[in-house]
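Consider the tokenized backbone below.
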């Protein structure tokens, strides 16, 4: 049983989703998505519903209409996203805005070390991920109608300002290195030379692979997407190469011919070839920024935990990583000349 009026939802689906036929069952996907996500199994097939969270939220947060606009632009352009079926902005149906997309059946790879896979297959999977990111960054935003999807100007400058503000608003401890980063990052922002769609959380477990082939069939979780500097996504993805294997995306020390996981230099070369770059700038600044941003996100979780709004064990484990994230962010800043 789900937490919404299934009769009203069924009526809306029958009226707005082509080919929809009941009866249907609705169940919520487990997991910590900030936009609650449900699977609908109906006589006409399976669908996914994403809605805004329950309770009061910031006006700009959890904008499912933005997410829908993006996938509705990317799908016809041939980029691997779930097919969009409809957006409902009428709160009267289930209590908030929501959208419906196809249920993409395939594999989710949770561990970047790809345990149990032969080396050649690991290489093929990583190549597919890099090629997918390059394809995203090569989409002409004007042609797909997304030229107003983000703000003009330097993306990193805006992001550093945003996460500095967020951090200060939810600050609970005195971390001198975080203060140093807040001072150093805006002074040293690299020049932005390209603008593209930025996913915002591009990593191996945010995509679905074909059941047999090393092929990405859907990229998920677009809630942090905007227009910005493609190096934001690329450097965030490369963080896995400087992160100890932790059963998630980290592959530090696991690359090379013996495992089949490409080295960071091979990934950079493949991405540059696909996007027509002659190289990427020194990555230490970008790594410092990515860790700073993660620390800002974790600080928000910590504040919610203290206020009693995020009580999961997972939240506590995440929050325990905070000092390590800040220390690592400052280490990369020092390597970048701070």
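A designed sequence for it:
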């Amino acid at each position: 049983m789900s937490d919404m009026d299934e009769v009203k939802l069924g009526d809306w689906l029958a009226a707005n989703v082509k080919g929809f036929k009941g009866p249907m069952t609705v169940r919520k996907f487990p997991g910590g998505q900030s936009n609650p996500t449900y699977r609908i199994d109906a006589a006409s097939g399976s669908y996914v519903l994403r809605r805004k969270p329950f309770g009061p939220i910031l006006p700009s947060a959890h904008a499912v209409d933005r997410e829908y606009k993006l996938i509705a632009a990317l799908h016809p352009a041939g980029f691997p996203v779930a097919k969009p079926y409809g957006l409902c902005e009428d709160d009267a149906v289930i209590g908030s805005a929501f959208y419906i997309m196809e249920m993409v059946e395939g594999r989710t790879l949770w561990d970047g070390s790809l345990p149990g896979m032969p080396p050649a297959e690991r290489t093929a999977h990583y190549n597919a991920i890099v090629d997918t990111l390059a394809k995203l960054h090569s989409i002409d935003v004007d042609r797909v109608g997304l030229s107003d999807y983000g703000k003009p100007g330097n993306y990193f400058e805006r992001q550093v300002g945003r996460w500095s503000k967020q951090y200060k608003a939810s600050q609970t401890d005195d971390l001198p290195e975080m203060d140093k980063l807040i001072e150093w990052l805006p002074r040293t922002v690299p020049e932005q030379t390209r603008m593209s769609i930025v996913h915002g959380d591009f990593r191996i477990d945010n995509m679905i692979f074909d059941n047999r082939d090393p092929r990405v069939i859907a990229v998920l979780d677009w809630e942090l997407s905007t227009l910005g500097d493609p190096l934001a996504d690329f450097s965030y993805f490369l963080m896995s190469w400087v992160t100890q294997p932790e059963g998630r995306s980290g592959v530090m020390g696991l690359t090379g011919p013996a495992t089949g996981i490409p080295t960071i230099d091979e990934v950079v070369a493949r991405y540059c070839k696909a996007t027509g770059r002659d190289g990427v700038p020194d990555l230490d600044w970008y790594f410092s920024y990515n860790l700073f941003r993660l620390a800002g996100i974790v600080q928000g979780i910590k504040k919610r935990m203290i206020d009693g709004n995020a009580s999961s064990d997972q939240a506590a484990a995440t929050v325990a990583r905070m000092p390590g994230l800040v220390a690592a962010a400052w280490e990369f800043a020092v390597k970048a000349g701070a």
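The mean pLDDT is 92.
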